[in-house]
Every structure is written in C-alpha cells, then in structure tokens.
Amino acid sequence: MICVQFIFKPGTYDDDFHRLDGEIDAYARSLPGYDHVETWQSKDGSMVNAIYYFADRAALAALSRFPRHLEAKEQVQRWYDG
Questions:
Q1: Is 2 exposed, middle or buried (0-12, 13-18, 19+ CB in 10 A)?
Q2: Residue 45: left (phi > 0), alpha (psi -120 to 50), or beta?
Q3: Which residues pair with 7 in a beta bridge?
Q4: Is the dihedral of CA 29, 59, 62, 13 positive or negative?
Q5: Do residues 1 and 52 make contact, with C-beta atoms less than 8 angstroms apart?
Q6: Do residues 49 and 7 make contact, with C-beta atoms less than 8 angstroms apart?
Q7: Each residue of 22-56: pLDDT tens digit?
Q8: What is the DSSP letter of 46?
Q9: pTM value?
Q10: Contacts of residue 77, Cβ cutoff 8 Å, sequence gap at least 6
Q11: For 49, which DSSP code?
C-alpha cells in the first residue's frame, strides 16, 4: 500500500478550484490501483490533510502525470494559504 498526503492550509476556493478538484478526484478514483481517500481537518479548520491510498506505484504515477493535476499544481498559491 502506498499513500500520498496533501497537507495544506485552506484558502479561498473558486470555480476553477472546484472543477479541477472534482476532475482530479474522479480520475484518481478511476485508476485500477486506487484504494481509498481519507480527509482530516484540524478542529479550528486551519489545516487539512487529504490522504490518498494506492495499491501500487503505477497508479500514483498515473495521477502525478494527469494533466488536470499538473494544471492545479501550477496554481496552488491561488487556493491555499500554505
């Protein structure tokens, strides 16, 4: 099992964020090696940890190359405060 964590301080989400987030999540879930996702948020809402679990490195590599994921990575400062 392989897990990848996205730990961040939420910022302001716009329509582009929600579109990309939905497309990335749907793609990740469609991968044969996808297992599940868990999300944790601090009590005060200042930190979020999204953990995606994969059965193998091939699935994780496919997600990392997904064009929408690459597009979102380029704009991370727009939506996250850290």
A1: middle
A2: left
A3: 49
A4: positive
A5: no
A6: yes
A7: 999 999 999 999 999 999 999 998 999 999 999 99
A8: S
A9: 0.86
A10: none
A11: E
